[in-house]
Amino acid sequence: MTAPEATSTRPYLIRALYEWCTDNGFTPHIAVRVDRNVQVPREFVRDGEIVLNVSYDATSGLQMGNDFISFTARFGGKPREIMVPVEQVMAIYARETGQGMAFPAPESDADNDNDNEVSVEQESDEPVSQDAVAEVPAEPAADERVVQLVSIQSEGDDEEPPRTPPPSGTRPSLKLVK
After folding, report:
1. Neighbour tally for 60: CB within 10 Å
2. 133-134 and 100-102 strand pairing
């Protein structure tokens, strides 16, 4: 099998990092580029993107296949069916540390056709449930295809610091290193 005929590594890497997060007691989140093929509550989409908590506690019936990630989650106290094409996943990371992996932006017809852009307005004043949605990290430039995630420890620091949750009001984000 040649490289163009091989299946995408993205679903395998997403599942591996999901397992790593859960094995280490972290909360896995996925950042998703929303288009018409993504089934998410549109009122929670910001700038065409949404971040979803895909932990065991926040989801029901989680299925991580090679083509789609699907589950049921509560948004504003109401259960909603979520279906995300794997190619729309931009990143998966641990909420507590920000460690994870970013993927190249999805290349779809929507990127080339302005008629297909997602336009979303807030439909409710109800607060967003932190069980299902988190802040979206900044999107890397389109020409940046390789992302390296680094530890926030200094290089001379051989001892691993104790893991504590971040102070309230702050959220981890992926750090782009060139």
Report:
1. 11
2. unpaired
